[in-house]
Amino acid sequence: MNPKLIIILVAAALAIAAPFFVYPVLLMTILCFVIFACSFNLLLGYTGLLCFGHAMFFGGAAYITGQILKTTSISVEVAILCGALAAGLLGLVIGQLSIRRQGIQFAMITLAFSQLVYFVLLQMEFTGGENGMQGIPRNPLFGLVEVRDSFSFYYVILALSAVAVFAFYRIVHSPFGEVLKAIRDNEARVESLGFDPEKFKLVAFTLSATMAGLAGAMKATVFQFATLTDLSWPVSGEVILMTLLGGLGTLTGPMFGAAIIILMNDHLAGFGEWALIGQGVILLVVIVLFRRGFVGEIGALMKYLARRGKKPSAALVTAKPVVEQSR
Amino acid sequence: MSIHAEAIRAPDVANFEQSDNVLVAEGLTKFFAGFAAVKDVNLSVRRGSIHALIGPNGAGKTTCFNLLTKTLSPSSGRILFDGDDISALRSSQVARRGLVRSFQISATFPNLTALENVRVALQSRFGAAYHFWRSLTAVAPLNKRAQELLEQVGLADSRNVAAAELSYGKKRALEIATTLALEPIVLLLDEPTAGMGHEDIEPITRLIKAAAVGRTVLLVEHNLSVVSNLCDRITVLQHGQTLAEGSYAEVSGNPAVISAYMGGIDE
Question: Is A310 on the interface with B (CB under 8 A)?
């Protein structure tokens, strides 16, 4: 059997069995941030765009999904998707306005927009301002199945996450994804080949915003409240940390990065402020010693070992007459 | 490196009538903060020729080249491609019309394999480039053509190697394969032999010669021996202006050109 398939099946089995052993809310939190990190990875890791305001999509979708669930009887999964789509729409608008800028300018503009969204939502009546939006109900799934307890709701979140991870994988390994990676590697060259890089970046930004919105909407239904914290710039910073920790531009790295950070926050919660210092030290170590992130370093090691193992046989293969190459 | 000149596909040879000059610049001028890097340059590139843009350091060659490829916008003057004014177009638009450039620093996509590098270029005319919901089997029909292009530049064995791991000479060859994927009418090469040892120059020169069959090539080049055995026509720039235009024999006999090069040594 294909080793990739085995890994996927094992991961699926673990994910299905997990709530029997681990507190479901913790698992759901991890899943929300895994999806959030994937959305960020799509931009920074695969398109080369550093968005410093990703929290606006995460937190914004949380409020919208919360408001839908509080004021209507729309089923929970539809409300989550509405939140994600709203974030995507916001992404489209903000992308239009900022995508022409590059590098640090782009990062600063997205940060400015996210602060704008923060203060607008702070002032709006329905968000509950400083108090946040409390008591978001989990309306029945498909309007039929009760999912009020965390154990059953975990499987809803798991299913949505699985779809999101598959979507992420599909985008990265699509004809579009191939052009995105080319833009990340050399934007001027892509333009000289007849593409409009800005249009590709705008589509990527919109997709990423939608996925970040999905993560935020899920989080609002998990905790049953939405707060300004989800919108604030430290959340934008945290997702950068997760991505770098796990391995920028690797498929699974940021997912592990998200899981590591959430677990760390959970375990170190008792230490208060010291948890942040611990996080800072770990980030420093990763930046200095493991520049590719955890998953990136493991991948590089495997590649290195494979190459060392292969060398003698590779020499045999190339022994047949091939086109001579200078140098 | 093996090259199959006849195998590199020529664009529509039937379109070769109309005008003699495929690319024309009229009164091309570019100011940088008040300084005229290129001043009133007139240039005409004959269809089917290999045309070189030369001149001492700081003569405005690269600026002129970037203007022609629309990487920069001219301050004044106009550029005609196949009789159409392209002065206001973007570089991606002129690329789609068949005016395709290479870069001085080897411009590959380092994290993509050689095959993917060429396939990305083929995608620009394929129409699935925005299909983010489809798997890569959607672009599988392009693999055959990509493989052919790699074979033409002698990279058939490196198809699955990341571009970053290729040698410098192979990177330049890959870049040419990528550029040819667009079936350009005019190929614009920015110092194709820059930074190369002589052992790499010869194969690249042959590659350019092969690629030029059935199309027009304009190149900026420092190496005069490459220019002399490759190019039909030469434009010499100095201080941002056209100093001379003609065949290698005409230009190299021109006293103004000789003094520009002699005087330009310590520039």
Answer: no
